Amino acid sequence: MSNNSRGMSSGLLVAVVIGTAASIYLYLTGILGIVPALAANALIIASTVVLGREKVNKKPIVWENEVVIITGGNRIKYYEGDVSNYKTLEPIVEKIVKDLGTPTVLFNNAGIMVPKSFLEFTPDQIDKLLAINLSGPIYLTRLVAPLMLKNRKGHIISMGSVASFVTFPHGSTYCASKHGLHGFFEGVRHDLRELPGGSKIKISVIYPSVVNTGLFDGLKTSTSLIANSSPDSVARAFIDIVESQEGHEIFLPRTAKITSFLSAFSRSFRDRVYNLLDAQNSMKEFKGRDLYFSKTAK
Q1: Are the beta carbons of 235 and 41 closer than 8 angstroms?
Q2: From CA 52, how far away is CA 193, in angstroms rounded?
Q3: Where do the TM regions start and end (predicted)?
Q4: How many CB atoms are located within 10 Å of the residue 80 CB?
Q5: CB burial class (10 A; 0-12, 13-18, 19+) of residue 93?
Q6: Is the CB of residue 138 less than 8 Å from the CB of residue 131?
Q7: pTM for the complete prediction?
Q8: Average pLDDT for residues 5-29, to the nearest whole number?
Q9: Hey, where are the domains in the chain?
């Protein structure tokens, strides 16, 4: 029996996790990121969802008919494409549906960070960063949401950032993409409410502080107010959201939520906060400055 037919008959959890070539490079060079952390927690995701259904339905679980557990090696379903190109994403989503069934969870995790003055960006680099960080999640949500609506269930989870609410020096382009992501999914929530079955589709966004991965190596931050996040804490937040089956806004750590209030204050007050955090010097020793563009340059 194919994975697809098994999934359609038993309500298989089909989680689609989107990453970038840069995250794969970091993983292969031994730098732990969010995607590997999610893989390490895949068993938890699978077992908790199915066991929760067993508790509600009071029926024994036949595991081989219920769930595909991603543990590594040849059990991984990997679909290569360009997250910034809608035309390449459409056939990939169609193949996922054919292989596994309608996606139950979409995790928009692809993103790049290239901190430098906007004057140092080439037009092509601006287009690429915005296409991956902002257009990509919009494209995938546009492709997957109708399938979830037809199935009357689904959860779209996206990786935001504290940069969705504040802007730092040499981060104007990156922060613009994260501000846009926040605005887009706020709008999507309202759009879905107006559609039949739209209330069954949950929208969640995770807003972490600086995540301790190689991509942020050398970034100087003040952890006295907002501590850095670990890849595992982000993975655990994802698991908690999936388990809850409700839409959430998750700030990591919890103190990061104060960033969502800063825009309510005057510009002069915000500048004083940035000075207190020494934001102007945070990028001087940053080592990941051109990591993505250098690894993807032709």
Answers
A1: yes
A2: 27
A3: 12-28
A4: 7
A5: buried
A6: no
A7: 0.73
A8: 44
A9: 3-296
Residue showing tokens 């020793």? 285
Distance CA 200, CA 152 (A): 6
Q: Does residue 5 carry a pLDDT above 50?
A: no
CA 264 – CA 291 distance, rounded (Å): 34
What is residue 208's predicted lDDT score, i.e. its pLDDT?
86
Burial of 224 (0-12, 13-18, 19+ CB in 10 A): exposed
Q: How confident is the model at residue 141 (pLDDT cuts 50, 70, 90)?
A: very high
Q: What is the domain class of 3-296 according to CATH?
A: alpha beta
| Preceding amide of 253 cis, omega within 30 | yes
Residue 252 phi, psi dihedral angles, 5° rounding: -125, 125
Assess contact for 213 and 233: CB atoms under 8 A: no
- Please count the other Cβ atoms lying within 10 Å of the Cβ belonging to residue 294: 11
Instruction: Give the closest residue to 83 by CA, choosing from 245, 292, 246.
Output: 292
Do the beta carbons of residue 93 and residue 143 sit within 8 Å? Answer: yes
Residue partners of 205: CB distance under 8 A and separation at least 6 = 157, 158, 159, 160, 164, 181, 182, 185, 248, 249, 250
Q: 279: which residues sit within 8 A by CB, 6+ positions away?
A: 168, 169
* Cβ–Cβ under 8 Å, residues 109 and 37: no
Q: How far apart are CA 245 and CA 225, in angstroms?
A: 31
DSSP single-letter state for residue 41:
T
- Token pair in block for residue 238: 């994802």
Please state, rounded to an integer, the average pLDDT across all residues of the chain: 73
Structure tokens at 288: 């990941």
